[in-house]
Amino acid sequence: MSSRRELLGSVTRKALIYAGLAVMLALALAPIVWIFLISLKTDKDIIASVPRIVFTPTLENYKAILIGVKSAGGETARPEFVHYFLNSLIITSGAVLVSLLAGVPAAYALARFKIKLKENIAFTFLSFRFAPEIAVIIPIFVIYRSLGLYNTYVGMILVYQLVTLPLIIWLMRGYFEDIPESIEQAARLDGYSRFAIFRKICLPLVKPGLASTAILAFIFAWNNFIFGLVLGAKETFPVTVGMLGFISYESVLWGQMAAASMVTILPEIVIALFIQKYLVRGLSFGAVRG
Amino acid sequence: MAAVTFAGVTKRYGKLVAVDRMDLEIGPAEFFVILGPAGAGKTTTLKMIARIEDVSEGEIRIDGERITGPDAPEPDAAMIFENYALYPHLTVFDNIAFPLRSRRRQTGPAEIAARVGEIARMLEIEGLLERRPAELSGGQRQRVSLGRALVRKPKVFLMDEPLSHLDAKLRHQMRRELKKLKGRLESAVVFVTHDYMEALSLADRIAVLDKGRIHQVGTPEEVYTAPEDIFVASQLGYPRINLVEGRVLVRGDGLAFASRDQALAFPVPAKLRRRLEELSQGEITAGIRPAAIGIVTAEAPGAVRAVRLMTERLGNRHILFAAVGGTSLAVTADRAELPEAGEGLFLSVQPEDVLYFGPSGQRIKEG
How remote is the C-alpha of B127 from its chain's centroid? Predict the structure, then answer.
């Protein structure tokens, strides 16, 4: 009797959980689905006052942003999109790479070395994430103008460190701290230098964590908007800023903008599929514990 | 020359003194066990030899060479960690080969293969060489960590409670294997444990440590039968040695020890007489090992009536907890000796086996 009620209870609970998940999924995916539909519509279908779910799909918008369209009455071609996309790739990959090179050793040092004011140093890195970017952008702009970093890839990669470096330092520090110290002590007694231990023991052990951290940093940097807007120009605009080009005085090219959005989130979706595998694996390496 | 020498070694963590002015000499090829309760400073002592921890004062030498201080060379010691500390991302082969591949040793691949193979044969882990630590059982991991230490042929082996994470059966098996191995080692072993059975069974000499201070260093025999003080006596043996407070009385033409309420009394051996007479007015403590108490009949000489409190039945051997007046005693007994419940229980103490401790806790020796 009671077991039956329990069974019923567990079934209702499961149903509720799935219902909740379905609502969340719908909320998260609805905008993406909507934009995807727009990207396949003609201008006429897009501005139809009753939105159409059923329509004849077209790839014209994708063609326009990726290849460009022969001018057939005014400015329709936007081939700059490809350029902006490459800019985003260069800046984001560059920023993540620089952050890894500087941040991973820093994270190790903060996890293991006895450094004076260690916690304060670590906190300072974290505090880069406190202030909204818009609050610091004007002084950075002035500095960039006088240093000649304005509208350069180097400048962009440097300023993106504000996004990626704290993330990498803080997440990687945790992964390094999870390695039992006795493993490093064993390696030292086995005749290895501190650097050799870092390279041969610690780095291989944090590899799954390193991958997921790098991917997260990539996504954060990829989505950044304000740094590109203020500190870049046409030559270095990332795709997030470049997208604004679809809005002009005369019209908004909704269809192409939607197509550009879809292409822009593509790398993130691919990467997110990777991250899932790694995030689950994390450092659950198993053998670390005794 | 001594393999390891401690001269006035002190280790402080802030205000806490973990190791207090330790002097120690460990001989070459000696199996030296440091025994003590949790927090005694055992592992700290090991880590100072390995230079994982720096000494606060004093110096440590390995084979006469100073290994403490800022300019000292790295100690030639291999450590076996409580949690094995294997490299999880390397195979068993690579784990054992790891020390040979260091820049310091730079062994060629042919020699590495030969030496790892030899060690693997010795430890019977040849079939596991391609596995990773995660795929091994606790006992197998312990063998691998042993192999990683053995392959280097260091001057000193440091073992930090290596058997404590194994289940009882495996622990006994590994203990026997360590004993077998002991004969083949040419280096000194410093072995840390809180298990007195491990210490007695493996050690050439034992140091009993508490709160950073060495209470006694001696052979297993010495430490067990002639403990320096109450602490050492109570660290070795299960059930724990019975400690009875009381005083020495003149009885007839000899001396006798009597518990406070005088319910338990037995003669004092003649050889201790002189020293005990000096203390005859003060309170002293008698240490009676459970095996030194016999279950006897009422007519037997020295028999005292006891009340049975509890019996712990361990197959053939039983532990009987009984009270004589206000004194509770643990007694080990064979099954056959144990009287039926309801029958009277009489105990007798073997006077020659009793240890006496003065007011400061030091054992009163003959002389």
Answer: 34
